[in-house]
Amino acid sequence: MKGNIFFAGIITLNLFLFASSKAMAARPLTTDDAGTVDLGSFEIELGYEFSQSKDNAQIQSIGISLKHGLSERFDFGISFPYELKPKSGLGGAEVGIKFSLLKEKNLPATSLTFTFGLGGSEYTLNGIMSKELFGTLSAHLNLGYVAPGIVTESGITTYSGAIEFPTGKNLTMVTELVGESNAEGNSWEGLIGGNLQVLRGMVLDFAIGKGFNGTSIEWKTGIGLTYGF
């Protein structure tokens, strides 16, 4: 059994490393892609999420983010979450930067992001790899660390994988598995959804997710809009 798992892992790694072309992720995925916003361009994202916890509590929130390409390899972004339920109010804004380390050729595209909350000490580092497989199927891997910024507190290791597969001229289906580990254990969430290009530069997205072991979320659903200009 261990030999079969090892062999399958080697095959997957080789496919990820040696397939060719470009790969880009987008909403509704949590998993990030290695691409950056084009130089001089802007990208705005709007999203709504409804979730229910395992104790039947309901949570509703909306979010908005704006990114700007500062160079061919570097972009800057800021995001604002707003909770609608159970409490209403603006959450802490986050600022992030992404730097492209390696453009996709024979090897996967690779990037590094750094995100921190305004007014707080917490920050996140995330490494990203993206690759297009079999001509159209795209894969993305993330590995990150959330640091509380307090010496006496332990951080959180995050990891995720996502796949995108076009099913038509304007529709792309997506799926992902997201996990995290901390001093209290591990948690996992899965998601399946899609994004639909409705106009040039404008994409609508939808998704439904499920929480597994260690997470407080039973299920969630969301819709969103991305516009680049």
Q: What does the model show?
A:
With 229 residues, the chain is mostly beta strands. The chain has a single domain, classed as Beta Barrel (Porin). It has one helix at 2-18; strands at 42-53, 58-69, 74-85, 89-90, 94-102, 109-117, 123-133, 137-147, 156-166, 171-182, 185-199, 202-211, 217-228. It has a twelve-stranded antiparallel β-barrel with strand order 1-2-3-5-6-7-8-9-10-11-12-13. Strand 5 and strand 6 (109-117) form a beta hairpin. It is globular, with a radius of gyration of 18 Å.
Overall shape? globular
What summary fits the major beta sheet? Answer: 12 strands, antiparallel, barrel
Estimate nothing, just give the exact number of structural domains. 1
Mean pLDDT: 88
The ordered string of helix (H) and strand (E) elements is: HEEEEEEEEEEEEE
Number of helices: 1
CATH topology title: Porin
Helix content: under 10%
Annotated CATH architecture: Beta Barrel
Classify the beta-strand content into a percent band. over 45%
What top-tier CATH class fits best? Mainly Beta
Total number of strands: 13
N→C terminal distance: 51 Å
Fourth CATH level, the homologous superfamily: monomeric porin ompg
Poorly predicted runs: 1-23
Give the class from helix and strand content and strand pairing: mainly beta
Gyration radius, rounded? 18 Å
Q: What is the strand arrangement across the widest sheet?
A: 1-2-3-5-6-7-8-9-10-11-12-13
Oligomer: single chain
